[in-house]
Structures are given as C-alpha cells and as structure tokens.
Amino acid sequence: MTPETVLTIAREALTVTTLLAAPLLLVALVTGVMVGILQAATQINEMTLSFIPKLLALMLTLLITGPWMLQLITSYTRTLFTSIPGLLG
C-alpha cells in the first residue's frame, strides 16, 4: 500500500466525519447562542433552560438528517470494503 492511498483513505474518512458531525454541531451552536441571548436578556439562569432546547433541537435534527447520515456512512463503508482487495495487492 502506497503512502498516497493511505492519505486518500484518511482524507475521505475525515471528510465523512466532518459531514456527519456538521449538522448536529451547527444546530447545537445556534440553539446554544439563542438560549444564551434569551437568558442574558431575561436574567434567567436555569440549567434546564439551556439543556432542554438543545436536546429537542438535536433530536429534530437527527430525525431530519438521520437518513442522509446513514446513507453517507453506509456508502463510505461499502466503498472502503470494496477497495480492500486493491489495497492489498
């Protein structure tokens, strides 16, 4: 196996990981900022007020993007498994 193929596999793995994590991280960030602004404006510092909206937003995001995420990781895994014979010999 050449160093170029190892780097290609590593780059594809990082790309897939970034694509899988991005929707959840962005939604958590936006929800956290919005709740933080609301808490600062109303001076309500309740821990559950920041946790529950993030949890609900992440669940909704998983419901919406879950099939796409599953298809992406399945496609990547299938491509990786089919390329194993070419990598070995």
Question: What can you see in these coordinates?
Answer:
- This protein is elongated.
- The chain is mainly alpha-helical and about 90 residues long.
- Helix 1 (about 5-40) runs antiparallel to helix 2.
- The chain has helices at about 5-40, 45-80, 85-89.
Write the layout of secondary structure elements.
Elements: H1 3-42, H2 47-82, H3 84-88
Helix pairs in contact: 1-2
Rg over alpha carbons: 19 Å
What portion of the residues fall into strands of 2 or more residues?
under 5%
Main sheet, how many strands, which sense, barrel? none
Pairing-aware structural class of the strands and helices?
mainly alpha
Q: Could you give the count of β-strands? A: 0
Helix segment count?
Answer: 3
- Helical content (DSSP H or I, runs of 4+): over 70%
Per the principal axes of the C-alpha atoms, what is the gross shape?
elongated
Low-confidence spans: pLDDT under 50, at least 5 residues? none
Mean pLDDT: 91
Distance linking N and C termini: 8 Å
Report the order of strands and helices: HHH
